[in-house]
Inverse folding.
């Protein structure tokens, strides 16, 4: 048996009998659910994070990610299937290192891959023969081959023989009750066929469906296509919301009727703009990569433009509505309902509700907010504490802006008591007693 076959066969056998051990670097919205699913599949997992509070929470059985229940985490921690540490050198103990660190944008909207580089350096410094590294962070096509492969080769390892390298995009959808880590198909692209074979064997016990593609570049691009698809289609329906507003047509009625077409139409809904860590960010990774190849990704740019103008559109709608009752924005009491970037999650990163608040405050409004998931907001000089959603707060507001349609909000109360409602999500139309 050759050296490569040996290292590959050993890892594959360890995957089959669950004796393979994993490190997950980065224990956030993507990394923690992966760590939990690996552990629940029978693998021992060391979670590595640079944030001591995250590590302490996990070791104490407290989940900071809404899709992972503390009960589930606690039992995996107490059964010693998961432990967390800030010490990156612990990756030398494991067979497989999964990298799930952030991939934000720099101030100039260029990819900031410094977290990937830092985590990869820490892992590769400790790398030993027989290990596999799987990059999961969303990034531009070429990252695995251009940033990770040379670092491994510099250490004298032959990828596909001594060690195995693949890209497998994290596809978690926070708050999605139907599609979670295990039942969401997992795309895998290995640097070599052997890398893909080993990664497939490692992930087979963890995911219901694996989708091998021919290279890491394909796998990297799959994720960017998915998120660009969302960004472009959200941009399209947001533009349709503006078109309908100008034509005095109900955009929601148009979309619902269009969605009855059983083929050739995919329903997307307009809203206050794009938010979260992925959709507003990821397409820029692709646009940046293509700029370097002298190609301008026009759909990405146009969708970004339309989506980022939506908060200003909704503020104009507030101004128009107040104007009808002879009130200016300045001095008006405006109550925001929902400030997270999507319903039923606690994440306010890149939330367009924050842009709406900022624009309203700039124009002199007295803004307050209610969000069952967010107790305080501190953003760009605006500091707010969540108020109660009561008859008094609803009646006391000159205008209510529904920016996020959390399921638990009492929409009947708003229907009954509010004087003006700007409903960016069509929450009030979605049935009595609930918003979804
Ligand atoms: N949040 C999502 O819904 C989602 C979905 C799919 C893919 N992704 C992708 O997954 C990646 C991670 O995103 P996230 O939302 O989980 O981010 P996050 O901010 O929730 O978590 C990242 C964690 O990584 C830690 N970290 C940073 N540098 C580290 C290092 N060098 N070593 C170890 N830990 C380190 C941070 O302390 C943090 O706890 C990104 O590329 C993102 O685009 C996210």
């Amino acid at each position: 048996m050759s050296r490569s076959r040996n290292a590959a066969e050993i890892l594959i056998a360890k995957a089959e009998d669950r004796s393979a051990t994993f490190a997950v670097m980065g224990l956030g919205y993507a990394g923690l659910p992966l760590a939990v699913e690996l552990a629940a599949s029978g693998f021992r997992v060391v979670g590595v994070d640079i944030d001591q509070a995250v590590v302490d929470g996990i070791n104490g059985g407290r989940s900071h990610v809404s899709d992972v229940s503390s009960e589930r985490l606690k039992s995996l921690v107490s059964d010693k299937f998961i432990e967390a540490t800030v010490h990156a050198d612990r990756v030398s103990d494991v067979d497989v290192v999964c990298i799930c660190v952030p991939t934000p944008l720099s101030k100039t909207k260029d990819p900031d891959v410094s977290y990937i580089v830092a985590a990869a350096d820490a892992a590769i410094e400790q790398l030993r023969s027989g290990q596999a590294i799987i990059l999961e962070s969303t990034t531009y096509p070429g990252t695995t081959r251009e940033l990770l492969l040379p670092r491994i080769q510099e250490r004298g390892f032959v990828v596909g023989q001594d060690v195995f390298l693949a890209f497998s995009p994290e596809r978690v959808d926070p708050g999605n009750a139907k599609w979670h880590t295990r039942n969401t198909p997992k795309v895998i692209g290995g640097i070599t066929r052997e890398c893909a074979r080993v990664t497939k064997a490692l992930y087979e016990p963890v995911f219901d469906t694996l989708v091998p593609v021919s290279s890491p570049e394909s796998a990297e691009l799959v994720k960017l296509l998915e998120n660009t698809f969302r960004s472009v289609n959200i941009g399209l329906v947001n533009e349709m919301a503006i078109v309908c507003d100008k034509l005095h047509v109900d955009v929601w009625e148009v979309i619902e009727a269009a969605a009855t077409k059983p083929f050739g139409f995919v329903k997307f809904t307009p809203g206050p703009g794009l938010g979260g860590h992925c959709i507003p960010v990821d397409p820029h990774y692709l646009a940046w990569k293509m700029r370097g190849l002298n190609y301008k990704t026009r759909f990405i740019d146009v969708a970004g433009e339309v989506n980022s103008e939506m908060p200003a559109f909704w503020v104009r709608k507030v101004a128009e509505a107040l104007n009808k009752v002879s009130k200016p924005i300045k001095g008006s009491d405006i109550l925001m309902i929902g400030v997270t970037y999507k319903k039923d999650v606690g994440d306010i990163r890149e939330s367009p509700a924050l842009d709406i608040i900022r624009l309203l405050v700039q124009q002199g409004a007295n803004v307050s907010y209610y969000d069952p998931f967010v107790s305080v907001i501190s953003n760009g000089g605006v500091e707010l504490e969540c108020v109660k959603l009561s008859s008094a707060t609803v009646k006391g507001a000159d205008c209510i802006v529904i920016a996020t349609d959390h399921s638990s909000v009492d929409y009947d109360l708003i229907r009954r008591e509010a004087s003006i409602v700007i409903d960016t999500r069509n929450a009030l139309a979605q049935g009595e007693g609930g918003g979804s």
